């Protein structure tokens, strides 16, 4: 009887992991589409590209999801806000690695990157992000989680309005 209960428990546990999937974003693919079609435990793997991936709205990485560049080199996957949209917010338990986030704009009190508790960003670069409205951040990295082996450089203010902040890293 104990053998049947143990076997049943193993089968149930195996089924929990059977639903996790890897979504590969090809060189000309849509990262935002991939993000809207994931659940906790899934991995989004972005192919290396010679052209940046253009985003049309800020990215929110769902809880428990991994978003990473395929090659392991942060220079091979560049995500650009195209000077029109904000940056990236990680959710609890999410992981982002091996990519560059560039040309994101903060408008009206928004921040560039937020890393909450139990989230992790590693081997990433945040560059050329800026603010355009009073109270905005060029790039703000709010770290309650983990930020490792990453670079924050080349971010700036778009004007001299009071309340602008070029770079802020806070925990």
Task: Describe the SSE topology.
Elements: H1 2-18, E1 22-25, H2 31-36, E2 43-46, E3 53-54, E4 59-61, E5 66-69, E6 78-80, E7 88-90, E8 95-102, E9 105-106, E10 113-115, E11 120-127, E12 130-131, E13 137-143, E14 146-148, E15 151-153, E16 156-157, E17 165-170
Parallel strand pairs: 1-2, 2-5, 3-6, 4-7, 5-8, 6-8, 7-10, 8-11, 9-12, 10-13, 11-14, 11-15, 12-16, 13-17
What can you tell me about this protein's structure?
This protein is mainly beta and 171 residues long. The protein contains two helices and 17 strands. The protein has helices at residues 2-18, 31-36; strands at residues 22-25, 43-46, 53-54, 59-61, 66-69, 78-80, 88-90, 95-102, 105-106, 113-115, 120-127, 130-131, 137-143, 146-148, 151-153, 156-157, 165-170. The longest helix has 17 residues, at 2-18. The protein is globular and about 45 Å long. 30% of the residues are buried. Residues 2-16 have low confidence and may be disordered.
The poorly predicted ranges are: 2-16
Main sheet, how many strands, which sense, barrel? 9 strands, parallel
Indicate the radius of gyration in whole angstroms: 18 Å
Shape call? globular
Q: On the 0-100 scale, what is the average pLDDT?
A: 80
| Tally of helical segments | 2
Q: Proportion of β residues?
A: 35-45%
Instruction: Count all strands and give the number.
Output: 17
Structural class: mainly beta
- Provide the succession of SSEs: HEHEEEEEEEEEEEEEEEE
Residues in helices, as a percent range: 10-25%
Q: Report how far the terminal alpha carbons are from each other.
A: 52 Å
């Amino acid at each position: 009887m104990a053998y049947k209960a143990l076997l049943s428990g193993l089968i149930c546990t195996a089924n929990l992991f059977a639903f996790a999937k890897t979504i590969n974003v090809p060189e000309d693919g849509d990262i935002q589409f991939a993000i809207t079609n994931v659940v906790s435990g899934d991995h989004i793997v972005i192919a290396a590209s010679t052209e940046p991936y253009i985003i049309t709205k800020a990215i929110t990485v769902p809880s428990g999801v991994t978003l990473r560049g395929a090659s392991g080199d942060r220079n091979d996957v560049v995500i650009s806000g195209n000077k029109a949209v904000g940056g990236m917010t990680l959710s609890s338990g999410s992981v982002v690695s091996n990519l560059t986030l560039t040309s994101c704009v903060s408008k009206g009190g928004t921040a560039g990157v937020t890393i909450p508790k139990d989230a992790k960003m590693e081997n990433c670069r945040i560059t050329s992000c800026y603010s355009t409205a009073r109270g905005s951040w060029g790039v703000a990295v709010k770290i309650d989680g983990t930020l490792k082996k990453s670079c924050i450089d080349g971010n700036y203010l778009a004007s001299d309005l009071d309340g602008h902040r070029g770079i802020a890293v806070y925990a």
